[in-house]
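tokens incoming
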């Protein structure tokens, strides 16, 4: 094998232009794979983060007539015991009217254990003016609702429920959760304030949570259902509520895979054709080597080594070019605020896999010229010059 390797190195060095051309072809194929794959993964991760990154991924609600969960602390303990669940929060929420003078606004009052809810919704970092509700009867309202109502920090308003319950609350801050419908409709307060307002006693309307792996939320949802099977509850996960998003993500993944497959086929055909020509070009040398006693197997190994070495060179160069393309993209494809249009996600396993596939493909492409070289007759080659 050492002899075949040494001869392969000499063949590659003797045709430097051809070697560089093949290596560049492989490198471009690897770079395109890495660029497209990382771009699609970054786009998908960005969409998922923006859609469910700061929302509940699994929600438990009641199937009872009053739609309230009792013994919720026991249910929370059962949920926390499920592997893969994190950031569990409870909420007490119902629709109500916010009265400010002669104006009435229909809103959703959401009462949280705010420290728990912040781990899901990142509320503290989204408050752009004022502070977090720390005491009972304090609320914060969204950016869009604040603009519509012209309310100010320190204003006192009344919240009235459909049952006629009424409570005066104080506005202590404004938040921006980056979702217009939420900013316009949610009034966030403490769990105790909401429970008192709606006469919930010590009940809640839902238990919300996030998972270690959002795309396994449906599996965890089934596990949680089994854990709470005797509690008359409904468990819903984000995948059930975002079928169109999932369909779009699957379409992107399929498109990315198809592009990468065709790039690989193009690289394979290119290498195979060039190496096949090399067999013809080097036929006289191979014939002489065979006449000197080199075996057919060794002659075949020469081209397999050539394919493998070209794959290694092309993979290394392609990874470098791929990173360069990704860096360039993040610097030139920008939003008006200067942030990248797509946050590039670097998956080193995917990049390593792309490099390995390039090496395997290059070696596989060398099989045809390797077989052809083993069939060369030294007598015929030398005879025909």
């Amino acid at each position: 094998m050492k002899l075949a390797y040494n001869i392969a190195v000499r063949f590659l060095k003797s045709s430097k232009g051809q070697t560089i051309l093949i290596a560049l072809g492989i490198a471009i194929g690897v770079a395109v794979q890495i660029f497209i794959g990382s771009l699609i993964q970054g786009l998908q991760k960005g969409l998922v983060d923006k859609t469910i990154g700061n929302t509940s991924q699994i929600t438990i609600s009641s199937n009872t007539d009053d739609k309230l969960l009792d013994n919720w602390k026991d249910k929370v303990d059962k949920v926390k015991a499920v592997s893969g669940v994190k950031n569990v929060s409870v909420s007490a929420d119902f629709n109500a009217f916010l009265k400010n003078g002669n104006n009435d606004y229909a809103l959703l009052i959401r009462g949280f254990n705010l420290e728990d809810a912040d781990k899901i919704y990142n509320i503290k970092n989204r408050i752009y003016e004022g502070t977090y509700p720390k005491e009972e009867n304090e609320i914060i309202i969204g950016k869009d609702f604040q603009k519509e109502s012209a309310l100010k920090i320190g204003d006192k308003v009344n919240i009235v429920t459909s049952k006629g319950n009424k409570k005066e609350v104080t506005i202590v801050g404004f938040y921006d959760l980056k979702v217009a419908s939420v900013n316009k409709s949610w009034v966030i307060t403490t769990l105790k304030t909401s429970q008192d307002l709606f006469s919930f006693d010590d009940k809640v309307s839902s238990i919300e949570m996030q998972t270690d792996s959002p795309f396994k939320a449906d599996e965890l949802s089934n596990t949680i259902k089994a854990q709470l099977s005797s509690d008359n509850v409904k468990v819903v996960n984000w995948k059930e509520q975002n079928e169109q998003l999932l369909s779009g993500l699957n379409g992107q993944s399929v498109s990315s895979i198809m592009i990468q497959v065709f790039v690989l086929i193009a690289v394979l055909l290119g290498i195979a054709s060039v190496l096949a020509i090399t067999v013809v070009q080097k036929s006289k040398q191979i014939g002489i080597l065979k006449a000197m006693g080199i075996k057919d197997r060794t002659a075949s190994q020469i081209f397999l080594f050539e394919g493998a070495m070209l794959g290694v060179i092309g993979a290394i160069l392609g990874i470098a070019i791929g990173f360069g393309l990704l860096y360039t993209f993040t610097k030139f494809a920008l939003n008006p605020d200067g942030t990248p249009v797509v946050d590039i996600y670097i998956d080193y396993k995917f990049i390593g896999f792309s490099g390995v596939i390039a090496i395997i493909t290059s070696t596989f492409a060398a099989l045809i010229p390797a077989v052809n070289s083993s069939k060369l007759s030294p007598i015929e080659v030398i005879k025909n010059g």
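note: The radius of gyration is 32 Å.
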